[in-house]
Amino acid sequence: MHNNNKELTLSAPLSGPVLTLAKVPDPVFASGAMGDGIAIDPLNDTLYSPCEAVVTHVARTGHAITLRADNGAELLLHLGLDTVELQGVGFSMLVKEGARVSNGQPLLRYDLDQVAQQCKSLVSLMILTNSQDFQARPITLKSVKVGDPLLHIVPKLANGVQIDIEVVGIEVQGHIHVAHRGGLHARPAALIRQTAQQFTSKSWLHFAGKSAACDSLIGLMGLAVGEQDEIRVSCQGPDAEAALQALLAALSTALAEDNHAAVPAPIVQRNRPAEAGVLHGVCAAPGLVAGPLFRLNSISLPMDAGNHEPEQQRHALDAARTQVRGEIDTTLAQAKKHKNTDEEAIFAAHLALLEDPALLDAAHQSIDQGIAATHAWSQSIDVQCEVLQQLGSPLLAERANDLRDLKQRVLRALLGETWQYDVPAGAIVAAHELTPSDLLQLSQQGVAGLCMAEGGATSHVAILARGKGLPCMVALGSTLLDQEQGQAVVLDADGGRIELTPNAARLAEVHQAQLDHKQRRALQQAQAHTPALTLDGLHIEVAANVASSAEAADALANGADGVGLLRTEFLFVDRNTAPDEQEQRIAYQAVLDAMGDKSVIIRTIDVGGDKQLDYLPLPDEANPVLGLRGIRLAQVRPELLDQQLRSLLQVSPLSRCRILLPMVTEVDELLHIRQRLDALCGELGLSQRPELGVMIEVPAAALLAEQLAEHADFLSIGTNDLSQYTLAMDRDHAGLASRVDALHPALLRLIAQTCAGAAVHNRWVGVCGALASDPLATPVLIGLGVRELSVSPVQIGEIKDRVRHLDASECRRITQDLLKLSSASAVRHACHQQWPLS
Ligand code: PEP
Ligand code: MG
């Protein structure tokens, strides 16, 4: 199989499980000393040619053969390990040196049992012996059958670059295997589109005889590229080379969310005995609930007579899309504010779909023929849904749901319908298929569960349901929609079933289970209001991270011992004019008031890097994350920081307000703000000064903790940035997300050093980064000397409960050993062993 005269796809010469060379139990092959290649643990008794080739050498002992492929690649096929010692017994060579062989031609036959008994291992190798000229890329690492595509051979460039780039005029091209789990579905495709849009060059992906421009999400998904499929990327324009490299990198880096959006093991309808009154489906989010069934219907359009004025209809469609864009923007801003990355990724993809040229072109063409905007939009989406559904990929078929979401939203805007369901709290909502926006609305209305006739467990709506803890079932079949409105049902998502005719006893049983669950939560919640002491009596303050006074009130209701971090940059995120001193004072005071008599740590504005504010444009930077961000604002806009400090000094009582400085790297920054605070206190005639703390979120600050603690009242560790700067991994990098793990032993050492430095001056240390909300990390942080954990409001009860089950001295002892481990995953593993999660 030739792609051109240099590249070559080798088919499997044997059937059986595939191994990388590194896993071969032979040091010479495993080290790659013989060349790049792949191994198979064979289950058949014949070795076949992997391509058209000439036999250049046949081992006298009949256990190995060398081929030269037409593109010049030289291949050693070696059957079993140390089989040379069998001196040919059990092998029969079927070809001679110099022979031309075709792809799939039998080369040698062997006696499977005899050879297996006498040699060290049957693991057989296909080695590219001229690896200096070619690169071998595995196509699969799963089990193969003879003839399956196995290894891709591409020539190396003269400079040794591993990716084959041919420069044709101002167009450049490259090939890459797509690493994204499930292939190019909506979120990875959105990432590719976003990457391409950073360049002026035009970019395309080519696969299986089809091409798609990178600016069309629909086009990209329509290629039906699967995981590990090899695709061609081409870019044309002034920055084509840079665009190509960026796209190749984005395509070959799997999204971390593909992993964390893990689907619970699907429980499928097939192979199930029929049960009267029970529908079987797939669990998309676990749970067991009972309640009245509430059916939701989607919009259906009346017949269209046509003959509409195109100009008017285009205008109507544009206006509707603008309205929907605004709604999605609001959802995105909320998701960003609450750091809800799943929600953000899903709705960012919706925004891209709303702009999709393929969808719009089709709709405009219909409009130009006199069709109403409603019908044109609807048809354009229906066609694309069908395309996605016929691609043979369940993952892509489920993305049709995202398109239907946009169809409904734009139709509602076009028809002027208000978009508000009136669903009673506690209901179990049944629909043909729910969309992500339906789900956000329904969860706010307090529904008990969701069930759908169609849909899949990997759909976006399923990811969101899991995130919200809302039991959800999909693929229940159309019988679901024939059920009576208001009928009492049991949704047993854990068991993959919905009971349509539960008797009173069953309903009572499920209600009891729901009640028990609620009670456990309520118990935790009730205990959430008492201080959290470890078994040996150490008090750990569990505070909350909040972004508004409403969230602060929520935190207090949830049992927060205080606010451990108020991110002031989020207080005014929704506006484009800067808040003045008075507005700021009112906002800070509202948070203090919402917290009763508890203290509130207010961080001075932390813009720059990943956080940008419309009303505070900062100069463009080559490396924004390493630029003017956090407290460095004092350097460029000192008047803004003074204004904020003045607002903070006017809250009352000042004793409950603690000020926290972000991104400090040296003591002078702290001393400078101290001076400013003193001066401002003087101007305002204040005798009392609020406590002043320093965030430890760059390694320099952790290493200087002792010097900082001399002048600070407390230290608060920002593990999000501390991970980013210690590990040199962008905290927002989709492909690195699973590796930006604050339980990395290097971070633990920095946290230990921070606590030791603070202890010299009797200062307390808190953690306000995301690690504080991870119950697996609670014993480690306590063991390292942290005394305050600032967590997300909903987790206060859970983290306090965790604290109460720990022994601080044991935490200290075990944590010392964790510092010596070699990776974050090793630490996580050890934590699971030492302090299992309940
Ligand atoms: C941190 O970096 O851990 C932190 C709490 O600050 P932010 O996430 O706001 O950067
Ligand atoms: Mg930070």
Automatic annotation (TrEMBL):
It catalyses: L-histidyl-[protein] + phosphoenolpyruvate = N(pros)-phospho-L-histidyl-[protein] + pyruvate. Pfam families: PEP-utilisers_N, PEP-utilizers, PEP-utilizers_C, PTS-HPr, PTS_EIIA_1. Its EC number is 2.7.3.9. Keywords: Cytoplasm, Kinase, Magnesium, Metal-binding, Phosphotransferase system, Sugar transport, Transferase, Transport. GO terms for molecular function: phosphoenolpyruvate-protein phosphotransferase activity. Its cofactor is Mg(2+). Residues 171-258 form the HPr domain. Gene3D superfamilies: Glucose Permease (Domain IIA) (2.70.70.10), HPr-like (3.30.1340.10), Phosphoenolpyruvate-binding domains (3.20.20.60), Phosphohistidine domain (3.50.30.10), PtsI, HPr-binding domain (1.10.274.10). It is found in: Cytoplasm. InterPro entries: Dup_hybrid_motif, HPr-like, HPr-like_sf, PEP-util_enz_mobile_dom, PEP-utilizing_PTS_enzyme, PEP_util_C, PEP_util_CS, Phosphohistidine_dom_sf. The keyword Magnesium applies. Its main location: cytoplasm. Residues 26-130 form the PTS EIIA type-1 domain. Belongs to the PEP-utilizing enzyme family. NCBIfam families: PTBA, PTS_HPr_family, PTS_I_fam. This is phosphoenolpyruvate--protein phosphotransferase. It comes from Pseudomonas cucumis. The lineage of its organism: Bacteria, Pseudomonadati, Pseudomonadota, Gammaproteobacteria, Pseudomonadales.
